[in-house]
Amino acid sequence: xxxxxxxxxxxxxxxxxxxxxxxxxxxxxxxxxxxxxxxxxxxxxxxxxxxxxxxxxxxxxxxxxxxxxxxxxxxxxxxxxxxxxxxxxxxxxxxxxxxxxxxxxxxxxxxxxxxxxxxxxxxxxxxxxxxxxxxxxxxxxxxxxxxxxxxxxxxxxxxxxxxxxxxxxxxxx
Length: 173
Known about the structure:
Layout: H1 3-9, H2 23-34, E1 45-50, H3 53-62, H4 68-71, E2 74-81, H5 82-115, E3 119-120, H6 128-134, E4 141-150, H7 164-167
Antiparallel strand pairs: 1-2, 2-4, 3-4
């Protein structure tokens, strides 16, 4: 699947088949995450690969009962590494760049998974301290996105998008 097809085919999927991901597919996704751009090339994030059912269940609880997290064979938790970004960029690195780095990496993850015929959904609604506890995150790591990955058991239709004329401005507002 080419890049533009992956962008247009990606959907938010909340139902997964009871099928494991192949190790080579997960490896390709993680290599794509590793290739994502980041502030100062610092890669101010960490990714926790969650396959353990007990940890998935703890993430479901942290995510206000979003049970599909435990149904997917793998969930990746993208965490901002505030210390890594702060070392070069100070407060702005800690408070903004680390979060941006983690979210860019999560978006690359979704596109890589789609290109491999896999499904994902971005989970941003969760209790941050509870999610951090579930993955035993150190104090300098903040979970910013949970991305379940698996084979789709549903195939949602495309959602409407804003027109470019509504979305864009030239030079200023």
